[in-house]
Amino acid sequence: MWNTCPGLFKSVFRDNQVFHVEHETHFAQKSEPLTGMCIAFEVRIALCCEWLWNPPTIKMGRVIAVANQKGGVGKTTTAINLAASFAAAEVNTLLIDCDPQSNASSGLGFVKDPERVSTYHLLMGAAEADEALQTTELEQLWLIPSHKNLIGANLELVEAERREFRLRDALAAVRERFQFVVLDCPPALDLLTLNALVAADTVLIPMQGEYFALEGISELLDTIERIRAGLNPELAIEGVVLTMFDDRTNLAQQVMGELKKFFGEKLCATCVPRNIRLAEAPSHGKAALVYDPRSKGAESYIRLAKEIIGHYGPAELGVQAPGEQPAAEMDKSA
Fold it and tell me: What is the pLDDT of residue 60?
């Protein structure tokens, strides 16, 4: 398997590290730094070696809102692990917790702290985005945490000017510092989700492979169309990703078939399986690829991150396609 990637070992084993994590960053215990060999094996980096070690250069951060008004479909799990997979690929990534439940924050190991600058302060204009940035275990992943006070923003912003644009305005100062910005939205089509969708370039919709999960999708799509019409005409659907997927059941296969008919190419090829490690990781305050890189859940989110990068052609991202000869060299050879 490794012979298909001749430059992989040279790329991976940089000073006995991988992912450019800070020197001797301790993923599991501070007394035991993981070696490059261990991590390279556990992440099974051969799944996407060409992309992970040759990340695209994106001049301004693409903002992806992970949204679905139905609860329990894996929005926060997707937001955390997608952002972590981007960061592990040496792509500067910002995860913003827009949910008053603060699960994305606690899922990365941040305990509740009322004194900490949060998304609430950004929406209320009480702080700048720079003040809210928090570093995480992954060197190239930052977090803007949430707080339970954020639920009050739905009422406090009702009479405020540019209430739908508060998050977009707050991100303007830091957006160019990140190649991807991932927004974890609450399970409701409220003012918080509206702010996220107005600030976003695209929407990623996690869905369960069950019929109940299909019922609310029309409401979300209607909201997206309304936002396009009046607030954010550039908003597009990044894709629909099936989560907690069990391909052994006929029901799951039927739901996938219906989604393919409706969404076509917008249905992500990657499905996230039911995986106990994905469920356990947040209780340890870690992303799945840090908690257990060998898990099927961690691997699926690495594939999903690779697939999303693939939505943008090399020309659009300003990178050379694998195997493509640079234009300057083509001129010389001619």
Answer: 61
As its CATH architecture, domain 58-313 has 3-Layer(aba) Sandwich (3.40)
pLDDT tens-digit map of 200-256: 999 999 998 887 777 778 888 999 999 999 999 999 999 999 999 988 888 888 889
Q: Element (H or E) spanning 265, and its range? A: none
204: enclosing H helix or E strand: strand 202-208
Tell me 182's DSSP state: E
Query: What is the pLDDT confidence band of residue 34, given thresholds at 50, 70 and 90?
Result: very low
Tokens of residue 136, six digits: 């995480």
- For 165-177, give one letter per residue: b (16+ CB within 10 A) or e: bbbbbbbeebbee
Per-residue pLDDT tens for 166-184? 999 999 999 999 999 999 9
- DSSP letter for each residue of 21-55: PPTT--SSBTTBPPPHHHHHHHHTGGGGHHHHTS-
CATH 3.40.50.300 boundaries in the chain: 58-313
Task: List phi, psi (to 5°) of 240.
Answer: -115, 125
3/6 Cα distance (integer angstroms): 6
Structure tokens at 86: 């981007």
Q: Give 286-291 contacts, CB < 8 A, sequence gap 24+.
A: 286/27, 286/108, 286/109, 286/137, 287/80, 287/81, 287/83, 287/84, 287/107, 287/108, 287/137, 287/138, 288/81, 288/84, 289/43, 289/81, 289/84, 289/85, 289/88, 290/27, 290/84, 290/137, 290/138
Q: What is the pTM of this model?
A: 0.78
DSSP annotation of 266 reads: G
Q: Are strands 93-97 and 202-208 parallel, antiparallel or unpaired?
A: unpaired
Instruction: Name residue 144's beta-bridge partners.
Output: 96
- Is the backbone of residue 118 left (phi > 0), alpha (psi -120 to 50) or beta? beta
DSSP 176: G
